[in-house]
Amino acid sequence: MKKFLIAIIGLNLLIVGWVVAKTDASQLQNQLIKIKCSAIKIQVDKTKLNDSLVRVNYGQMYESTIIKLMVPVNTRLIANRYNKTSALVEKSDLFEQKVELFKRQYQTYQEEIDQLSQMDCQKSTAKYYQQLVLVRQSRAKLKQSVAELEKLLVDYKSKYQEIIDEQVK
Question: What is the value of pTM for the model shown?
Answer without folding.
Answer: 0.77
